[in-house]
Structure formats: C-alpha cells, structure tokens
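job 3f2a | input accepted
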Amino acid sequence: GNPPMNTVTGDVTRIDGGVGVRIPGGTVTLPPALGAAVERRGLEQVVLGVRPEDLAFDDGGLIRATVSLVEALGHERHVICRLEDGQLIIVRQPVSAAPPVEEREVGVATDAAHLHVFNAASEERVDA
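job 3f2a | predicted structure (128 res):
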C-alpha cells in the first residue's frame, strides 16, 4: 500500500496476565490468541506492523510520538511521527480532522485487531 505498513521492532513482555510488545514510546497489548502464538514460538523480539489508516491520534493513546511532518495530499494527510528512538510511523488522517502541530508530542492508538506481528529474526508472520 501507499504509504506502506508501519513496522516497529519491540521486545515481548508479560503484562496483566497477557502478552505485550514494548516499543519505543509505550507498550502494546496483543490480542489473547496472537499473544499465545507469540509465546508458543518462544519469541523475545518481534516486529509490529500496522497500516497508517489503522492508527489514530488519541491523547490517551498508549504510544507517545513526536510529529515530524504533516503532508497534505488533498483528500487526506500523511502525518509522519518519530518514536523516541527515531523510528518513524505514519498516520493517515482525513482532511476533516484537525491536523496535529509539528514538533509536538502526540498519543497514537490503534485497535489491537489491526496489529500484525512478525518474527524479528526470520521476518515470518506470526498468526494466531
């Protein structure tokens, strides 16, 4: 797709009886079946993938990032954000939404059902 899927490398961790992935800027809880699949494979590091249209700005979002660039494309915006370690993510936003301010910290959220998980070493997709 365009823009491409966001991919962020993180460490697998146990949280509240489930499985999460600690990435720069926060920790993402995996859906139970996907978390169990990660545990069955004994993975310690994974790559999380999420499409730009499946991310949204949310003050209460679990991931913190800094807006680097707001790119207006007519009917939509691509908002490029930087995680604390420098990894970039792109949020696709309709023009009807208020644009974020460049160089400001924002909260980013997604529905866990939209997450894709890949083995960091082999790059194979992990399916529930």
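job 3f2a | The two ends are 23 Å apart (CA to CA).
job 3f2a | closed
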